[in-house]
Amino acid sequence: MTHPLIKHICRYVTVPDKDIAAILSFFDTVNVAKKQNLLEEGQYSKTTYFVISGCLRLFFINEKGGEQTTQFALEDWWMSDFLAFGSHKPAVFYIQAVEKTQALALSFEAHEALLEQFPYLEKYFRLMYQKGYGASQQRIKYLYGMSREELYHMFATLYPAFVQRIPQYLLASFLGFTPEYLSEIRRKK
Amino acid sequence: MTHPLIKHICRYVTVPDKDIAAILSFFDTVNVAKKQNLLEEGQYSKTTYFVISGCLRLFFINEKGGEQTTQFALEDWWMSDFLAFGSHKPAVFYIQAVEKTQALALSFEAHEALLEQFPYLEKYFRLMYQKGYGASQQRIKYLYGMSREELYHMFATLYPAFVQRIPQYLLASFLGFTPEYLSEIRRKK
Lengths: 189, 189
Hints:
2 copies of one chain form a homodimer. With 189 residues, chain A is an alpha+beta fold.
């Protein structure tokens, strides 16, 4: 069976069989329990994660001391605090497992070395960041322009499996309202 | 004098002199007057812009019929509706010149052909999108977590030249408040 990461890369670029083992050797497998942190605000740990199974979330602690989730990553998604990853700045986000998760960790140094050795992977990562950037632009649009209820309906339509899988209190936080208000919207529907 | 785009690329990757003319041949120079649109919502025109001089903004029309600016691009910045650029979806944003602007236009097809011919440029674009993505993640954090007044002070501290240059009504729209409220904040300071 092809490794999930290699399968994902092959959607965008051709990977010769002879390179597979060498590519995978740049990654560390990490297994985290539900609610375990992979990254904490203020850390200089520069790592990006590819989810094999489970789910990660990106969040920060807001002024009221609450956890505000801004992003989720399911299977085949990459997650990092990308500004901290690409700079010498400390992280401004936490990364935490929403459920028991297996992920591949790629450090900044390993990322650079991987691309040095296999330059054809630049295209894969270019496309990942291009998509991530484009999705963020739209996300910003929705944050400015939509009511929270519309945001919920959009997510429920675009990502039905996602909305079923994420715990309700996290989905509510992500959408910017209380769990009670989320139940109310769901009942209305 | 080195071309501004080549100068910018050379901050990240080495460009042999012999390639410069061929690289630039993939781009079209566009000159736009103040308030002229380069992209309109619903268009399938897939182009990314590199600003040579002037300033562009990304905005959408909100439900009240107002223009909500979500991003600016000054000299040496790239701008596009990146989800539309990388897919077959219509644009959900407008791109407009804030002042008289000269930019280089790179169509999706030219982008692909450029990278096919000069694969070492993949790294440059990968880094551009990685930075853009990282900045968007932080932007989303600020939209969730900061008051509008804090947002203003953060922008004024990080980008003083930018805050001076952008017309006040656009800066107010970008920050999500009225021009009157912006004047009030500035007076307080």
